[in-house]
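discrete fold record:
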Amino acid sequence: MTLQMGLVLSAIAFLGTHFLMSHPLRAPLVRAMGEGPFRVVYSLVAILTFGAMIYFYGKIGREPPLWDVGEAGWIAGTLLMWLGSILFVGSFVGNPALPGMRGPSGAPPRGVFAITRHPMMWGFALWGIVHLALVAIPKALFLDGSIILLALAGAAGQDRKKEKLLGDRWYAWVAHTSFIPFARGIRSPGALAFVGGTVLWLGATWLHPGHAAGVWRWIG
């Protein structure tokens, strides 16, 4: 088996096990082992399959780029990654989808949830889109493409599941927030998300392995 085939198969395993264990297999597995053990198994499978992708991605080594986005692409990517970091950090504040939460309340969405009802998923998706566009190498099509597909298809799956579970509460929630960021107009993410996301963005791009990323590409 070639390293490229290993990456492809691990990407298929990563996506396939996630969607199967999140939807058709979730209920029978929870009944069989309980909610807590299921979450442990689910997490271990996700870590192992994602780890396999990272392993093969690294072993493949350097590849020639498929395209060059130029300076304009780097500027756009830097700004999108900043937005993704803000959405990601803000998603931990009042997220109705996090474990232990009971879903959307009757209150209108605030912070990043007024921007999109899936800020964490869009944080991952934007990272994948930016990374794929900027590094532009064949192996990134599988690693970043898997992250993008998982984030956006997973968000759509969450919508369908919440609609069935919550009914009118869900309809009231989606009336005030959109799937696509800013589709219902410009909204403030809130101070905590903005500051925390900016710190994360600056730190992650400064620590980026291999080459300068983000604003550090221009200011050193």
